[in-house]
Structures are given as structure tokens and as C-alpha cells.
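Q: My labmate handed me this sequence with no annotations at all. I'd like to see what the chain might look like in three dimensions before we decide whether it's worth expressing. Could you predict it?
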Amino acid sequence: MSNLKSKVFFADLRAGSRRNLFDKIGEILALAGAKTRFRKGHLVAVKLHFGEKGNSSYIRPVFVRKAVDAIKETGALPFLTDTNTLYVGTRGNTVTHLKTAIENGFAYPVVGAPLVIADGLRGELATDVRVDGKFFESVKIASMIAGANGLLALTHFKCHEMTGFGGALKNIGMGCASREGKLAQHSNLAPIVDPAGCTACGECSLACPVNAIDIGSVAVINASSCIGCGHCIAACPEGTINIQWDETASNLQGKMAEYAKGALAGKDGRTLFVNFVTDVSPACDCYGHNDAPIVPDIGILASADPVAIDQASADLVNAEEGIRDSALKAGHERGGDKFRGVHPAVDWEVQLDAAASLGLGKRLYEIEKI
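A: Here is what I predict for the chain of 370 residues:
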């Protein structure tokens, strides 16, 4: 790969009557190449996180609308998309996921694009994409993302308890995976049934494609037969089938990078990444709450390189002085490692090195402020 630095465009949050944040979003998308990367008739997946019910740190729908309008100007056809979650919550199936998204403000009259949950009703629709990685020969990408002509990843940049931070790489790596793909990244073991809550209704057994679940007084998953599809987790009406979160943070980041490679496969020159480095919360948006940010709001970044934009976002966060009255426990000084200050056991640089080694981008970058 060339030693040339990747270009990352940066817009701060200063605004006035002649140039507001909506104007800046349009400018930064144009500079990053939206007009040349998306073409007339292309179906463009706008990958974002709609926010769990009770969480409010996700990207504002009115900002998403500006990105949608920028894609429409090229003649392309954008749709907002995410995948169903692995765990039980308000986004674990398409019906409640869409309901949550609309309640959080992502209705068509606001965002100007249809909402599509990319992996089916319960996360079962996946396309196998070959990656020939250290962890996976192939990965399972949500079918409607795999089938899109292009992808625009809009990411709320924040801390994360397993990856140090959640940026563009996590948005496309974990966020574009089917339920089976998410389970493969998080765990090496079969799900387990909590007998205290199991009613032996049999819904999990009916959902299992390989008949790996026996129903007696409670459901029992045969680990030797389980293929890790995660269908039983979605099918359980009591929410008593649990993931064994046994994967290490380093391995999870390596797996996530391979899934990011799969998500971008077949879309060369037709992808773009925008990070909103605002409300930098100490944990991901998958919780039904969000704690106070650990640094002041910084700005918006855009790049064609997902590695460079995440590296630049992390560097900008670390360059800030940390907020004392927050979950940040160390690294408050400018230049201090804010991500280890919240999650000290996680080496967040693993995901950047892994993605760079897979050819997804470069850690070397130059920022152009607009």
C-alpha cells in the first residue's frame, strides 16, 4: 500500500447565520467525494445506528436528512439501514427495531429515505462473503447491505467496552453482520438457556435449523450440534437464551475487521464514511441510556478511508481535556488516552492495525479543515 497519507476532512461545530452545521455537512460530503462515488440509479445503504429506546446520543435525524439529500443529488437512491441486535432489546427484530427508529425520529418525513432492516425479520438474511482472514474464511453480511451498490456509513463516535471506541470500523464490521455473524464475533460457544425463566414453549426448537435444541422441562441446547446461527435467541419470547460473551477484546477486534472487509466487498470506490465526534459517551448506543460525554463536542469528519477516519477521530478525542465529572477515570490531560481512561483493559489500536493489515485503509492521515 502507498505511503501517502489518507485525506480526512474535518468540520468544527462553529456556525453562524451564513453557514450553519447543515451547510458544513453538505460541504464535507462533497469534499470527501459523494458526488463521484454515488451514481444515478445506485441503491446506497446509509448505515447508521438508530439508537436503543431510552438512548439519546445517536446522530440527529435532521443531520441524517442532509446526508440523504446529498446522495439524492447524485441521482442515487439512498435507504437508511441497520441490522437487528444479537441481544434481547428494542432492536432485536425488525418490527420493534423499526418502531424504535421511528420513535427516535427516523421517520420518512424527517429523514427523506425509507428505512430497511438489512438482515430480515429476525436477523436470518445473510450473504456469505469470502475474506480469507485469520479468523474467518467467509463472513455473513446482512443481505440487503451486501446487495447495495454503495454504502455511506454515518457513525456516532464514542467509547466501547470491548473495542475501546466504536467508530466507522465497528459500524460496518459489527453493524453490517447478520445475527449469526455477530454471534461468531462475540463468542466461540453455543448460547445457553437460563432454566429459571424457560417455560419449555418450544419456540426456540422450532426456530433451530439443525434440531440442536431438546425440549423437556426446559430447553437444552446441544453444543456439539449448534451452528451458532443465533435464531433461538431471537425466537425466545421470554428472553432466557443468553450469549456466552467469551471472546477476548483483541480477538473480537480482529474478527470485526474481517467483517468490515466483507461489508465493503464489491463496493470499491462506492463507499464513504462520516464520523460525528459529538456526545462522546463512555459506552455504545446499544444501551437504553447514555452517560455524560467524556470530552467536549469536537466536530464532524469525512473520508473515503475507514481506518484513517477512526484514527483521526481517536486522536482528536485524546487531544481534548477530559471532562472531570464523567465516567473518565484517567487520562484527563490533553494527549491522555481517553479510551483506556474509561476501559483500561482494552487496547483499542488492535482494530486499526487489523483493518490496515487487511487493506481497508491506512493509519497515516492528513486532516483538511473546511
